[in-house]
Amino acid sequence: MRYSILTLFPELVRPWTQESIVQKAIAKGLISVGVRDIREQASDRHKTADDTPYGGGAGMVMRVDVSVRAIEAAGPADEVILLSPAGVPFTQALAEELATKEHLVLLCGRYEGIDARVEGFITREISIGDYVLMGGELGALVILEATARLIPGVIKEAESHRQDSFSSGLLDYPHYTRPVEFRGLRVPEILRSGHHTKIAEWRRKQALKRTKERRPDLLERAELTAQDWAWLEELERGGV
């Protein structure tokens, strides 16, 4: 997978590519991440990439000519994505779709936004939440992490991401590790039993319980079995 992140502030992004799993994936050749300074495509000696808005108003707007040249300089792409509060919500399902692509261009807006004519040169607008940030860099990094970890070989245990929150439509079950007891809080005995069938059942019940308590809206879209519904009814009665 190849990523091209287009930004006015490349030094905000580059450190993220030099640490942890992303850095290891780059070193293995599983992904490549090009961080491109949009200002390099400006034609004046001041490298101007923004200007005042037509019609008046506060703030500055990123120029269409500079932005489009930055997109074109990144080369052919499967998707050209603008990070924008007006975009479709970023979800695990969308991450899984994008992870199958060969080249993603991620365009980071700044200031009051990007000249609307740029929309003709993008394939998607994506939002990471109903709030406004100072720029699209964090959104681009969210997409980078969420998709890169799904690429075979990036995460050592392939099963890990298949049981993540949202991959099954439910929140993930609770996890525990050593020590067995900490300040009176103990690891559930079932997890130390070695009985894999019962452990799997416990985890599924806990995922259902967490989802019902914390994100009940997800249950409306999750693919639930008859057994899942029976456990949810049991939960209503105070069980599970």
Poorly predicted sequence stretches spanning 5 or more consecutive residues: none
CA(first)-CA(last) distance: 42 Å
Overall outline: elongated
Broad CATH class of the largest domain: Alpha Beta
Secondary-structure element order, N to C: EHHEEEHEHEEHHEEHH
Q: Cα-atom Rg, whole angstroms?
A: 22 Å
Main beta sheet: strand number and arrangement?
A: 5 strands, parallel
Task: Please give the CATH architecture of the largest domain.
Answer: 3-Layer(aba) Sandwich
Strand percentage lies at 15-25%
How many beta strands in the DSSP annotation? 9
The CATH topology of the largest domain comes to: Alpha/beta knot
Task: Indicate the percent of residues in helices.
Answer: 25-40%
The total domain count is 2
What count of helical segments does DSSP give? Answer: 8
CATH H-level superfamily title of the largest domain: SPOUT methyltransferase, trefoil knot domain
Keywords: Cytoplasm, Methyltransferase, S-adenosyl-L-methionine, Transferase, tRNA processing
Pfam families: tRNA_m1G_MT
Subunit structure: Homodimer.
EC number: 2.1.1.228
How would you describe what is shown here?
The chain has 240 residues and is α/β, with parallel strands linked by helices. The protein has 2 domains: 2-148, SPOUT methyltransferase, trefoil knot domain (Alpha/beta knot), CATH 3.40.1280.10; 163-236, tRNA(m1g37)methyltransferase, domain 2 (Trp Operon Repressor, Chain A, Orthogonal Bundle), CATH 1.10.1270. The protein is 32% helix and 17% strand. It is built from 8 helices and 9 strands. The protein has helices spanning 10-13, 20-27, 64-73, 92-98, 137-148, 158-162, 196-214, 226-236, and strands at 2-7, 32-37, 50-51, 61-62, 79-89, 103-108, 124-127, 181-182, 185-186. It has a 5-stranded parallel beta sheet, sandwiched between helices. Helix 7 crosses helix 8. It is elongated and about 70 Å long. The protein starts with a strand and ends with a helix.
